[in-house]
Amino acid sequence: MSANAPHAPHAAALVLGTAQLGMGYGAANSSGMPPESEAADIVRTAVQGGVRAIDTARGYGISEQRIGLALAARDLPPVTVLTKLDPLIHLTAGTPADEAVAAAVQSLNDSRRALRRERLDILMLHRPSHRTDWSGAVWHMLLRERDAGTIGKLGVSVQSLEEARAALTDRDVEHLQIPLNLLDRRWGSQDFGAAREARAGVTFHARSALLQGLLAGTPDARWPVFPGWSPMQMMFQLHRLAQSFGRESLSDLCIAWVRAQNWIDGIVLGMETRAQIDTNLALFRRTPLSKEQCAAVTDAISGFPENLANPPSWPKERRPLSSWQSN
Questions:
Q1: Count of structural domains, the chain
Q2: How many helices (H) does the chain have, and how many strands (E)?
Q3: Which candidate among 90, 95, 286, 321 keeps its CA 20 to 30 Å from the CA of 261?
Q4: pTM of the entire predicted model
């Protein structure tokens, strides 16, 4: 089958990630946060191009505000906005429950005001522990909001396999966002597969398909420095695989790999320029990798540091890819 043929019905859809629209974000982001008019143009262009879901968060700077402004125009088709509760980093486990609930309510009100929506389509916890912290008081408040119709569905944004498994035990969790890319082997575990299959109605979104842009292969992308390891051989292997599979770029390879995981419903990709929208919309019209190609990727790409697939665990020291090329 040609890589340009229509994709399989189950293949994940493009979700516009907007952290870059509200703050400086991403190891490969060389252009910084775009101006307000450009941010609005990015959102509108994505929606006009067929994107039907936008991912944001209270913790993404002014992202919600910019999305609300861009979507205020009445000439756009309906779009689902997924946002996340404030991380509430100023609170501790010892904070009184009523104070934590008040802070969470304020977060909801701020999101509604910024997004210009009375009803939040999907509200995720930015911190999975907030489902049980403060004796579950914040989560119970969110359940009441959902039951009242001011929140559509509740979900959790997780970082680890353990957080995902715990979230899936809660029947009120209907949306799960996970980090997933072709280096991250955690999510293929048998126990997670069983937990996922037991919750057939849950929507799964993947973020970090390009590992903050590093896997796109741009020379100025700043890689974490792990002693005794260079990304050059791994990137060479990825280039070789992309060519042998008939993919047009490393981004194409990485996105096609995630889209081949048929339990993933959407892939959150951050974009800070209009050109990236056009490129990514085109990539999502291509076919996912085959099972055999996914297996070939796993066999070919190995020997990288375990923590490479997990940005929160990266060392602070970073070096652009081009600096390894000269060594």
A1: 1
A2: 12, 10
A3: 321
A4: 0.93
